[in-house]
Amino acid sequence: MEEGVNLCDYSFANNYIWKGSIELLWKIINGNFCLFGVTSKGICMMLPPLGKTNIQNTLNECFSIMQEINDCSGFESYVNYVYENFLNLFDTSLYRIVEGYPDYIYQTSDLIKLAGRNYEKKRNEINYFKKHYDSSFKKFSSEHIADALLMIDQWKKEKVQESNLSNHNETHYEYSLIHEAEAAKCAIIFSEELGLEGAIITINDRIEGITLGERITLNNASVLIEKTNNKFHGMPQFIYQQFCASDFSDVAFINAGEDWGIEGLRRAKMSYHPYLLAKKFIIYKK
User: Fold this and answer.
1) Residue 1 lies inside a defined structural domain of this protein
2) CATH classification at residue 116
3) Tens digit of pLDDT for each residue in 218-247?
4) Which of 42, 44, 194, 286 could crosslink 13 through cysteines, CB 3.0-4.6 Å?
């Protein structure tokens, strides 16, 4: 984790769980940790160089590495998920800087208390869930792994049925739906090794919701995974509130990640009234 960076992209766990959809390679350049991601299309940097030694030369070498591979395929080389202060470490006039999708950061106390008119709908949804379903909220542990994996498979199956992927034109949607399930399963299987905290909701002794997260700085936690059965109205709101209260009440802020440009996800994240939209940037060579 780069010191003081409150973006969820910089944790080891958040990169590791996506290993099924992208091959991760790393190299130390001028004492900086440089993380690359390789797909069938080409190679990019998953993060800017981590460290602060000779960043200008390090970036030049990173782009040389990428261009050597990408020039054959025509894939444009870039550095992804760049935190704002990194832009002060090199001459930005030599590059094309594009603002990406921000991370949604909330005050933890807001997510727990859900006080005031802004959160009236959330409270109503939680109350509906508590009134209509006999559920149990439990801390996630290794004994839940097998059933949790089955729940993710069912979640993926229902999402595919709900969405006609061939007619869905939102950018990244197909990628996010297909690979998100695999990332969730990876997080579940390796939750203990990755230091993740988690919770489940059971109804009739069956796991119908799961969430996993981690602390990324002293004052910030990140919710990596949240999957629920859409048949149970109010469950997403209930598990989110309970998880923040049970595991992260001692940190000031919760990072819920970005919206990937998906309008429905953007509306859902905005409905919790973020305290801050943490900017992220993409660096291209001019």
Assistant:
1) no
2) 3.40.630.30
3) 999 999 999 999 899 999 999 999 999 999
4) 194
